[in-house]
Design goal:
Oligomer: single chain
Number of strands: 17
Strand content: 35-45%
Low-confidence stretches: 57-68, 88-101
Shape: globular
Largest sheet: 12 strands, mixed
Mean pLDDT: 81
Number of helices: 7
CATH class of the largest domain: Mainly Beta
Length: 308
């Protein structure tokens, strides 16, 4: 915890996450003041939201019962304990099988809303997307890149040494080309723009993408040509659900961003600049029958526009 933020700040972040689930406008204002007071608060807030989302994907009965219980002092105490446990050691809850803060100890990392480009020792190019982290280990015999969290794009050059890319699901062998790899809970999504990637000798060829899970390829499909638009600072979508679009956009900004169920299934297409998410929200109000409701700077929801 010392490498990221103190246990006191972690507890404060948990407190504000619980408070933010209420409809109390004063609490939302207080949360915004806390976030603006210190960049450490913002980092802790971003992380505790990740822990909260991972908790919602856990099948453990005690976790499910706590999250689904009606509001009460007992639920607040239990939820606080779960969230703090997730920050301190997620392994015991089955959230993930490694350090819950891997990005803070990685060789290279990019914060929320930023991207990073690196030239590796062999001349290959490594791009890190928002909130991503990777380790790089090159020596005389091998080239190894380990994706700790988030998403990366690798432009791999020819070299006598093989290049291995490790994710939570295992290792991929990348043969010179261009590859996008994103880590999800339970699987990695691998997109091959050129060259080929292989797992245990089974290749995934250029022009295809697939999930990598349980030591092999799953759900092989044609490549989404917009998969790596983030490298150029763009989010490009075609007929995407608004709910899914906002989930994707939320990766690039601090705070909570979502929408009501009434507008979640609206479809959206276009190219959007990731450097200005506020502008994107303004564009959505113009192009869709939605209204942006800002509880605070860090708590934004899209709702159906009034027809009156």
């Amino acid at each position: 915890m010392n490498a990221a933020f103190s246990s006191q700040i972690a507890e404060q972040a948990v407190h504000w996450l619980i408070e933010s689930q209420s409809d109390d406008f004063d609490q939302h204002q207080a949360l915004e003041r806390w976030l603006q007071a210190d960049s450490e608060h913002q980092r802790a807030w971003a992380h505790i939201q990740q822990v909260n989302q991972r908790l919602r994907g856990v099948a453990a009965p005690v976790v499910h019962a706590t999250l689904q219980a009606p509001p009460s002092p007992a639920r607040r105490r239990a939820l606080k304990a779960l969230l703090l446990a997730g920050v301190a050691s997620a392994a015991g809850l089955g959230l993930q099988q490694h350090n819950p803060l891997p990005g803070l100890m990685a060789d290279y990392r990019s914060p929320v809303g930023q991207r990073r480009r690196l030239t590796l020792d062999d001349g290959s190019q490594l791009h890190l997307n928002t909130r991503s982290a990777a380790d790089v280990r090159f020596d005389g015999r091998q080239r190894l890149v380990r994706l700790q969290e988030g998403e990366l794009l690798l432009e791999v050059i020819n070299d006598p040494r093989p290049l291995r890319l490790a994710t939570a699901q295992g290792e991929l062998h990348l043969h010179s080309g261009r590859f996008d790899v994103r880590q999800f809970d339970g699987f990695s999504l691998v997109s091959v723009f050129s060259g080929s990637a292989s797992v245990a000798g089974t290749p995934l060829l250029a022009g295809h993408q697939a999930r990598f899970a349980q030591g092999g390829w799953q759900a092989i499909a044609p490549l989404d040509p917009n998969r790596a638009a983030w490298v150029e600072g763009m989010l490009v979508v075609s007929q995407m659900r608004l709910g899914d679009f906002l989930a994707e956009l939320s990766r690039y900004r601090l705070g909570q961003l979502g929408c009501s169920e009434r507008v979640a299934d609206l479809r959206i297409s276009g190219s959007y600049p990731l450097a200005d998410s506020e502008r994107i929200l303004e564009m959505l109000e113009v192009t869709l029958p939605v209204k942006v409701r800002r509880f605070t700077r860090y708590w934004v929801s899209l709702e159906a526009a009034s027809t009156g």
